[in-house]
Structures are given as C-alpha cells and as structure tokens.
Amino acid sequence: MGRTWICGAAIGLSLAMGTAIAALGGANPPVPDANIAVQLFSLHKDLSRDAPATLKALRDSGVTQVEAYGLLGRDAAGFKALLDQAGLVAVGSHVSLSDLRDNVPGIIATAKTVGYRYVGVAWLKAQGAPFDKGIGPAEVDAAIAAYKAACPALKAAGLRVMYHVHGYEFAADPGGKGTLMDRLLAGLDPACVELQMDVFWVLKAGIDPVALLKQLGGRVKLLHVKDMRPGGSTGEFTGSAPASDFAPIGAGSVDWTSLVAAARAAGVDWYVLEDESPTPAAHLARSLAWLRGR
Length: 294
Hints:
This protein has helices at 3-23, 44-49, 51-60, 76-86, 97-102, 104-114, 137-156, 180-187, 199-204, 209-216, 256-266, 280-292, and strands at residues 36-39, 65-68, 89-95, 118-121, 160-165, 193-198, 220-225, 227-228, 246-247, 270-273. By secondary structure, it is an alpha/beta fold. It has one domain (33-292): Divalent-metal-dependent TIM barrel enzymes (TIM Barrel, Alpha-Beta Barrel). The strands form two sheets. An eight-stranded parallel β-barrel has the order 1-2-3-4-5-6-7-10, surrounded by five helices. Strands 8-9 form a two-stranded antiparallel sheet. α4 links the parallel β2 and β3 (89-95). α3 (51-60) packs across α4.
C-alpha cells in the first residue's frame, strides 16, 4: 500500500471526525473531555499501515487520551515516544491473561514508562478458540487466580487494576447456581479489582447495561462505549459479533442518556470509545460528538 494512500486515509480520518463533531453541535454535553479516551484497537488496521499518521489524525480530531492494547510493535519507550509525537496520552492498557499471571514486573515497568494509570485483562478465551464458543468455569477460575496473585504488586506500584466485562461471563455456570459472572464477581476482590463494562458486549449477552450499572454500583469505574444496531441479535455469550452489528453512539439500541446518568451515579471515571465496525473512523467521530455534545 503506497504512502500517498496512507496519508490520505489519515487526513480522511481527521476530517471525518472534525466534520461529525461540528455537525452535531448543540447536543447535550454529558461527558467531560477529561474523562474520554479512545481504545486504539478501533484503528488497528490503520495503525499497522502508518501508526504516526493515524495517531496524528486522531489527535487532530480532538482526542487527547487513548487506551492501549499493546505497543504497536515497539518497546515501551518507543511507544511512549510515538504517543508524545502525536500529542496523545495513554491512560491505561489491556494486558494478556498470561502476562498478568507470569509477567507482573513487565506490566509494571511498561506502565511506568508509558504512564498508564490502570491495566486489566480484556479477553479470557484461549488463542484459536472458536468464535461461536464462549468460556467456562476453568477460564473464570484461571482469571481469578491470576488477579489474586498479581493485584498486590500492581496496586503497590500505584496502578488501578480492572477486569473488562466481555459478555460471555453471563452464560450459566455449570458448576454453580448462577452465572459465570456471579462466579467471577465472587472471586475478585472489589477492594482491588475494578470493572470495565463493555456496553456493546453486555447488550449482546441480553443484559440491560443500565440495570447492570445500577446493580454493580461502584464496582464499575470504566466503560467501553459502543452501541449496537437496532435489531441486532442478543442473548449470545460468545464475545463475537458480525462487524455490521456495531453502531455509533446514539444511532443504536442503547439509551445513552439513561446509561450516562447511571454511570455518573456509579462513579464511572473513564468512558473509552471503541468501534469494531468496517468504518471505525466515521463511527468514532459520531460517538465522540455525542459524548462531547459539540
């Protein structure tokens, strides 16, 4: 792919986001900019082609904070330099369950170099697991054990620790009376592990995200903010969905006004935009516009 096309795509990202933000001016501003970040995985295809141009376009759109999912093929110092060059700050990062279990010193060292404020696991399914299958008690118990072992050192290093709720946790627990989510919550120490609730995946599992926020209360401190198209199927516990199911905020099935109100009441700190659709830049633009009310 030629560099001319790459630069054109990056400029298109910036223009699309800026245009959408301007077009939605006058909306009710529910979330301060200081509490908004973008999960970089949303733009992983563009980042793999030209990370500097993609990050610059993201910053030009008005975004200042991001959530990482890796180091984009660099070491921690190189990743931090890349963000600095673009004028972006990484407020937190997803880490693998294997690193949480086996490489806590590495997580801490990376966090100190990049400047993360929080870290957490976002995916429990084994590498290569079928898309149409969920998880079971073994995966939940492995996560609980890893968090119990890692949490003291991570907290001592000044990091907040979170678990990313991905929807498959709401399947029935064959080894208990409730769900795998019940099993997980019982095993995670709320004094150490906060929750990052992914609104789309909770809805995909057939759970009302507003009701869940009210139920979990102060345990949810972070949201993954993304919407589902009207008519999208629910009641599924695989953590997978067609790309066409993702919608920008305000154009889907979620009552965001009620959800943001519930998030405020619960004390949510971070609203992390993520999009897994075929057109993530356009969707992020509309979602950012809704959150910022501009």
